[in-house]
Amino acid sequence: MVTLKVPPLREHLEDLPLLVEHFVAAAGGDRGAAEVLAAPMLAELSRHRWPGNVRELRNLVEATVLMGEPPPLETDRDPAGPQPSGTIIDVAPWLSRPYTEAKDLVAEQFELQYFRVLLEACGGSVAKAAEAAGIHRTYLTRLLKRRGIKLQRSLLY
To answer: How far apart are CA 6 and CA 21, in angstroms?
Structure first.
C-alpha cells in the first residue's frame, strides 16, 4: 500500500500562481493569470487561510474569469450583510450562442445592473461605490465607461 500525503493549499502557497494559471485556462479565460489576478490580489490570496483548499481557489478563479474581477474571499464577507437571493439564471435564451459569447453577455448584463444599483445606493458617489464593491475607484470608473454608464463629474470623489 502506498500513502500519498497532499498538504493543504495553505502549506504550499508558492504554487498559487501556477494553480491560478491552470484554473484560468480550464475556465476558458482568454487572458493570462497575471491579467486575471494582479500581483496585489495574489499577495492577498497568499495571506488567506484557504479553508476550502484548492477547490476554493478554483471557484474564486472561475468567478473572476466570469465576472472580470475577483469576488471577496469568504472571510471578507459580512455574515450579517445581505446574501445573494439564490436566483437561478435562465440559460435557455443563451443556448444558441457559443459559450464564451453567452458568458460575456450575461456578465455584461450583471455589471450594468450591479453598478447602477450600487451607484444609486451610494448616492452616485463613485468613490463610495468602489469602496463598497471592494475595487479601486479608477477601475470602477473604467468599468462604468465601458458599460456606458454616465456619471456626474461632481460625484467621482
So the answer is: 20
Reported as type and span, the H/E element at residue 107 is: helix 99-121
Cβ atoms of residues 37 and 61 within 8 Å? yes
Report the Cα–Cα distance between both ends of the chain, in Å, rounded: 64
Same domain, 14 and 42: yes
Q: Which domain holds residue 36?
A: 9-75
On whether both 67 and 102 belong to a single domain, the answer is: no
Give 68-84 pLDDT, tens digit per residue: 777 777 654 444 445 45
pTM > 0.85: no
DSSP letters for 131-154: HHHTS-HHHHHHHHHHTT----GG
pLDDT at 153: 55
CB 63 within 8 A of CB 40: no
